[in-house]
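Quick entry, no commentary yet.
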Amino acid sequence: MSPRPGRYRPPVRLRRSPVRWERQQPTWRDAKPALIAQALKRAQARPTGNWYVVGASRDLRADRPLGRTVAGREIVLWRDAEGRPVAGPGACPHLGAPLRDSPVRCGTLVCHWHGLALDGRPFAGWEPWPVHDDGVLLWVRLDGSGGEAPTDAPLVPTRPAAADALSAVYTTVGVCEPEDVVANRLDPWHGAWFHPYSFVDLTVVRAPGRTDEDDSFTVDVSFKVAGRLVVPVRAEFTAPGPRTVLMTITEGEGRGSVVETHATPLGRDARGRPRTAVVEAVVAGSERRGFAAARRAAPALRPFVRAAAARLWRDDLAYAERRWELRSTGRFPG
């Protein structure tokens, strides 16, 4: 699929023999429930070091804090005077004020109820939690929730170099558990059926066996541009942890580009149902000379990348929520 060196090939192709949606090859026999379940089980056994993705790096500004809830814990994040991220309990240790609503002044978070000032160091009963900014995503380590042996930093997937890439992060929330989000991504066979507006000519050319420790799925697929115009690629799906699925383009346009899908448990809603945040990072790169212009236009392009992700996750979250609904009532056939 990769173009030969020295020869220009446009990324867009014309589908010469398009197949109607209802006439494409059924994939239900290949999408074996046991195969997906075993790949999910192995992903769930992989360590995380107790790190959770909480959002995009760009969301954490210097002039105001960011409030999040992870695994039922209220968290506040802000940047200190050096621009480094700080994270800790989101309730003021004095009388419980919501610190997410408090201002940041010169890197210090000042409680808006009584003026208790936090500069990121332990103070007045408030203790910081480990936090990591990888340049695209923010991570917080919650040892009390993860229950694993902690690590100094999260396992950040391999990505294109930030200076050479265009990145965008999309976040949405659904009624399900992280495993339902991961299971959706470990079922690549649904792509052309469930998302015909985005994917066509999808073939899973490699899937792991029930006991295969290499859980990679290799997929040939074409991204729709308009009409019969498509961009064909080969992509690999892997699950490096119980809450993460990574798609990497291995051949074709944008080789090396990744889509990271992180599922972060939030807690229970008023009806006792689990809520999970899907934080998806698209980090795209290209060897084409014109891609430099795309990087410069990143602020204008990011809304379109997020809109495309939102359309896909409107459907995929319905898949994940349906899976949880069936599991929670003992009706899931897988």
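second:
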Amino acid sequence: MASAPRPRTTTRDPEELTRRLTAWLDARLPGAKAVDVSVPESNGMSSETLLFTVEHPEPPLRHCALRLAADPAAYTVFPVYDMPRQYRTMRLVAEHTDLPVPRVLWLEKDPGPLGAPFFVMERVEGRVPPDVMPYTYEGNWLHAATDTERAHLEEASVAVVARLHDQAPVDEARFLALPGEGSPLRRHVQAQRAYYAWVVSGMPRSPLIERAFDRLEELWPDTEDEPVLNWGDARIGNVVYDGFAPAAVLDWEMAALAPREVDLGWMIYLHRFFQDLTVTFGQSGLPDFLRRDRAEDTYARLTGHTPRAMDFYTLYAALRHAIVMLRVACRQIHFGAAAAPAAPQDTDTLILHHGSLAAMVQGSYW
């Protein structure tokens, strides 16, 4: 893991982006230009992020972050990048909850200026738990924190999800309802099946992912509560922290209306993903951080809603992440950063967490 090449995240020329961004800014704020343009180390593998400062004759300076839809010619991780939807979601959450969501400034739907739609938001200073190398590895600020500090961050992070679910008005968020038939949960799973079909189009299928879909049907919850606004990518790697308190909640591209447990299961499993990998590579990681039982208890205490069917929802999180990881691995192969499996039946080995997903399918993980 330590020697693996960092996944390629962009095919765009930073200097060209800077020139075009300045031209776009000048049309909105005459005399403005973009300076100190940079790509953060934590730049994702779906939408791209640019950090920059707006320099303008009339102060103050504005420190901004720009979220740019992925280049459609760059073997994208997701089939669709709906920047207006993400922009609208952030505005809704900022207006109707007390979550620290960055203030969005501009939305550009026209792909002409930068090659794809984008939006600009105010940049919030702070620190983010790293993905590469994962925060579960030694040598970063969260791993080096005390147990008390990590416990504070854990509680505050679960509270972000709890407050979102309790405060965001569902009626205002109907634009996030997924298409299809059946309950919101059924539609959510149908959307993941469609995403999987897109990922494996023209390539060998994943027997493990398909077994996981079958296992979901066997574990399907007896009852489904009313949907809430789900963050979608609810994990601590999408939060900017001031000390150990959330200062900005980021990455709303996977937001949807779904049961509460979809978000909670994702937060629990995405930590387990990093923890399991860390143990595999010979370190102890953070085994007492974001434990499933404690996260569920914290959520129940904060909301009055006791999470149910969490074996289903954590399996669903691991399954969803497996589809993403399969696409990311195929993207690495496409760019020559990784080798394709020797045989089609080895497709499952492209999924970093295939062992833990298999254990969940078998019912032996927890």
